[in-house]
Structures are given as structure tokens and as C-alpha cells.
Amino acid sequence: MRVGDFEVRLINDGECRVDGGAMFGARPKTIWSRLVTSDAHNRVPLAINCLLIETPHKRILVDVGIGAGTPSEFRDLHGLTGVKGMRRRIEEAGLKVDDIDIVLFSHLHYDHVDGALETVGGRKTPVFSRAEYVIQAGEWRDAFNTNKLTAGGYNEATLKILEQTGRVRFIEGDVEVSPGVSVRVTGGHTVHHQIVIIESLGEKAVFLADLIPTAAHLQPINISALDTNFLETFNAKSRLIREAVSEKITCFFSHENDNVAGYVRRRGGGYVLEARQEKET
After folding, report:
1. Strands 262-267 and 270-275: what pairing?
2. Distance, CA of 33 to CA of 28 (rounded, Å)
3. How much of the chain is in helix, strand and coil states, percent to nearest 5?
4. Which of 58, 107, 158, 251 could hold 101 in an S-S bridge, CB 3.0 to 4.6 Å?
5. Beta 203-207 vs 250-252: how paired, if at all?
6. Cα(158)–Cα(33) distance, rounded to whole angstroms?
7. What is the 3-state secondary structure (H, E, C) of 201-227?
8. Closest CA to 226 of 111, 103, 76
């Protein structure tokens, strides 16, 4: 899909399942079940999506999924299916892992970071041997200073291996990571969670990460119980959705199954996603 003179495409690495109550927080099941279907364990399906951005300057991969080689108990608990790992997915996209210049993390939860590693000879090693890893400095600090509410989301072992590469670059606040590719700190899901904004030749796209993980979360009140600050999420979502509508921004989702990308439209008292048509690519 073209965004100006950039090529932008989702890289999917399978699906996981998360408790529906966790994904929709205070919203009762009688409401969220109209939007998604849960299984016998009350889990809803979530795609594991990353975003590949190819610009005239850099190839940037936003998030890297959960990775292959997880223990069978973990796969069963989280309903993991179709996970092949980033090396396979990048090759399926017609590239090699060494073609990736920057791995940009929206945040450091394991389902967005652990795919940076693969098992070789019984050891965990980085998939991307030459890429720079870019993350908010505050998010990195928080990942190593967790509490009882946040500890389950992070995998320190993965981050320590990435740190040993010497290629972790820390950023502070809203910055341009590469020409035409910038980040905006939203908070909400984690304190230093960030979205990725892509701008080229007057066109604009955004990777919403876990601020708005699926199209069902476009309604500002649909907030995951996994977020650290519900009000911050609500305010950031409300501002961003208004911006997306008024500026016709192409939206990409980290966990949406049904829509590759689309535009947000007002409908009735809420918002819906209108799929971007192939003729516009």
C-alpha cells in the first residue's frame, strides 16, 4: 500500500486469544459481543500485526510480534496459532532480515518485542543482525522496574539480549525517527506507549499499536482492562480519532483481524472503519 512515495504493509505473524473482558474492560459482554465473537473460554481472537515501512531512506519495522518457539503450555494458554517468526515473515515479504535498518517498538510488551529473537543452537539470538532498535527511554526504564500490575507484560530476558547488541537507541518524547516517520507518545496502555505516524507527499498514515488495538476499539469508551491509565487512553484516543476523520488518515491496527487498513468515519453516534480500497494503493 502506498502512502505518498512510501510502501507500507502489515506483516502478520499469526493470532493469539485474549480474554474478552480484559480486552474491553468495563464494557459488559452484552455490548462487546456484538463486535467480536468469543470462544468457549471467553477469549477473543487478536491478530499479531507488525508494520513494514519502506522509504527512500530506510526500511523500518514497527514491532516484531511474539516470535516462534514459545513453550507449548504458553501457546495453549494464549491460543497462539500461525506464528512462524519474523525471519520467515520478512522473507515471505520478499526481503531479508538484514534489509531492515530500524526496528521501532511501540512499547515493550512481550507480544510486540519477543519476535526480535530466535533460537539458534539452543540459544536466543537477535533476528535482525544489523538493525537499530528504537524505543522510548521511559518505556525501557519501566520494563526493568515493574510492579505487581505491570510485571506480566514484560520479558526482561529479551531486552537484555537486545541491549547486548549495542544497537538500542533511546528517544524521549515525540520525535522524527527517520524522514517522514515519527512517533507520538500517547500513554494510556503503558506510560510511554507511542504510535507511529507516516507522512509523505501530503498523505498520512498511523500505526495505532495498542492505543486502539482493533477496529472494535475505535469507540473511545472501549478500553482494555490491560491499560495502565484508562482516562489517558480515552483522551488520547478521542483526539486521535477526530484527527483521523478530519485528515483522512490511513489507520493500521496491531491486533485487527478483518481489515488491513482503512479510514475512520463517523456513523450515528460512533465511529467505524472503512477499508481502504486497492485502487488507492
Report:
1. antiparallel
2. 9
3. 25, 30, 40
4. 58
5. parallel
6. 35
7. CCEEEEECCCCCCCHHHCCCCCCCCCC
8. 111
Question: What's the one-letter identity of residue 65?
Answer: G
With a pLDDT cut of 90, the percent of the chain lying above it is 94
Instruction: Decide: residue 94, CB within 10 A, 0-12 exposed, 13-18 middle, 19+ buried.
Output: exposed
pLDDT for residue 281 is more than 80? no
What cell does 41 get?
A: 473460554
- CA angle 274-278-280, nearest 5°? 85
Q: What single-letter amino acid sits at 71?
A: P
What is the C-alpha radius of gyration for the chain, rounded to an integer number of angstroms?
18
Average pLDDT over residues 15-36: 96
pLDDT digits (tens, 9 = 90+) for 207-235: 999 999 999 999 999 999 999 999 999 99
Q: Which helix H or strand E contains 281, and what residues bound it?
A: none
Q: Which one of 3.30.450.20, 2.115.10.20, 3.60.15.10, 3.40.50.300 gives the CATH number of domain 2-280? A: 3.60.15.10
The answer to whether the beta carbons of residues 133 and 169 sit under 8 Å apart is yes
Alpha helices in the chain (DSSP H): 20-24, 29-32, 72-78, 86-92, 110-113, 137-143, 156-164, 230-247
**Over the stretch 42-54, which tens digit does the pLDDT of each residue have?**
999 999 999 999 9
